[in-house]
Design brief:
With about 425 residues, the chain is mainly alpha-helical. Helix content is about 60%, strand content about 0%.
Length: about 425
């Protein structure tokens, strides 16, 4: 791979209109604008990040998380480009746009939503559809349902009444989103991690060929990552770890002293002394935590950029496959590990998080059951009423079982937590409109 080919302003679905213009640098900024003004991005406001969406204390949702990841991603892309002699504005805009979109394919109720969809087909009532699916590849798409693959579909698929190429983003931005550049059949072990569904395989191959992204094995569809994927991944790693700690502090899951200790661990003794001088000037506890969190993010940005620059040759050859956060300095690695272990113990397994996952499981499973039955039995009166609830861009008059199920997954995965809950209550008769 080479940087000249990897940085392409060609737009997916609009290739015939592509021409080199003097203002081509702004094409990646247009990707960012196109995403941020989209309805799919706005819906992230009512999608769970980690904690349930409370009314009394503001914690992160998918939208605020994505905006922060994008901000950190822009810094990572710009700083790395400056050191590598690339156009900083271009690189920063590509990474910022890809980071902005990275969670747009996630279903309601956090990561548990992905697990719920997968388990519906692997061990739930959706197992009955296995005999109808044409290929093992298509079935693996369902039993390993993945938000990363779903965002690539959302951004590239031509939904009914919409333009060819989906969002018509640049090839470089789309490639920078694909964290796992291989299909579901090549996902490792029990990990539901892959980058594109069968229905979008040709789209990804077209992008990879245009950008010169090489296959790691000539006999497989397992590709190297676009180098900027590592920066998007690093931005996400930095934000979700540190921002979840800050949210946990606001919700009083971890104490102020414990939070300060976690964030100060990222600095050596000399740095700590300087930070504490300024910290003591602040009397507001939340402001103290925000100050330390911002410093820790800055430190991790510099560390990840250092690794990215040092590994440039390996990144371009496709031989590097470790998250940048795994190669930061020993001091930062230890601090990050402590944060991660505490988050797993006190945050991700907290009662509040488990409760929202249990609720989400019931809601999504019920919606999947009702709507898959409806699309496979459209002759029934009740099915017809249910199908009328589905917006026009989701085509229900399809012929193959795989495409029918994909339509339902497109509809449900695009829902917000609030919309899914409201629809669940209505179709189960809990609420009367």
């Amino acid at each position: 791979m080479n940087w000249q080919q990897l940085l392409s302003t060609k737009r997916f679905g609009l290739e015939q209109y592509h021409a080199v213009h003097a203002d081509d640098r702004s094409e990646f900024q247009r990707d960012y604008d196109r995403l941020i003004f989209s309805a799919a991005f706005r819906r992230l406001q009512n999608k769970t990040q980690v904690f349930p969406l409370p009314t009394n204390i503001f914690v992160h949702n998918r939208l605020t998380h994505s905006l922060e990841v994008s901000c950190v991603g822009r810094s990572l892309g710009s700083f790395a480009a400056q050191q590598l002699g690339l156009e900083a504005g271009e690189a920063g805009s590509i990474v910022a746009a890809a980071a902005l979109a990275h969670d747009m394919g996630n279903p309601p109720f956090g990561h548990s939503g992905e697990m719920t969809i997968s388990s519906f087909f692997s061990e739930g009532k959706g197992l009955k559809f296995k005999r109808l699916i044409d290929s093992e590849n298509q079935w693996q798409d369902l039993v390993r349902f993945e938000g990363n693959a779903n965002v690539f579909r959302l951004l590239t698929h031509q939904f009914k009444g919409r333009r060819q190429g989906g969002f018509a983003l640049t090839y470089s931005t789309l490639a920078s989103i694909v964290k796992y550049p291989f299909p579901s059949t090549e996902a490792e072990g029990n990990k539901n991690k892959f980058g594109f569904f069968c229905s979008e395989t040709e789209s990804y191959l077209q992008i990879a060929n245009e950008l010169g992204i090489n296959s790691l094995d000539k006999n497989s569809n397992h590709f190297a990552r676009h180098p900027f994927v590592f920066l998007v991944e690093a931005a996400d790693d930095i934000c979700y770890q540190l921002m979840d700690i800050e949210d946990a502090h606001k919700l009083k899951i971890i104490s102020t002293d414990e939070t300060k200790m976690l964030l100060l661990n990222f600095f050596d003794q000399k740095e700590k002394a300087r930070r504490l001088e300024i910290l003591n000037m602040l009397s507001d506890v939340n402001e103290q935590i925000a100050y330390l969190r911002s410093l820790a993010i800055g430190k991790l940005i510099r560390e990840c950029v250092r690794v990215f620059v040092e590994k440039e040759d390996d990144l371009l050859s496709g031989s590097y496959n470790i998250p940048l956060i795994k190669n930061i300095s020993p001091e930062c690695t230890e601090a990050y590990k402590i944060c991660s272990e505490l988050a797993t113990k006190k945050i991700y397994h907290s009662q509040e998080v488990i409760d929202i996952e249990l609720t989400g499981y019931k809601i999504i499973t019920t919606l999947l059951e009702y709507f898959t039955d409806a699309i496979f039995s459209p002759e029934k009166k009740y099915s017809q009423q249910l199908l009328m609830r589905i917006p026009a861009q989701y085509e229900t008059a399809l012929t193959t079982p795989y495409s029918k199920i994909q339509t339902i997954l497109d509809y449900i995965s695009g829902m917000t937590d609030v919309y899914a809950l409201d629809l669940y209550r209505k179709i189960t008769g809990i609420n009367i409109p």
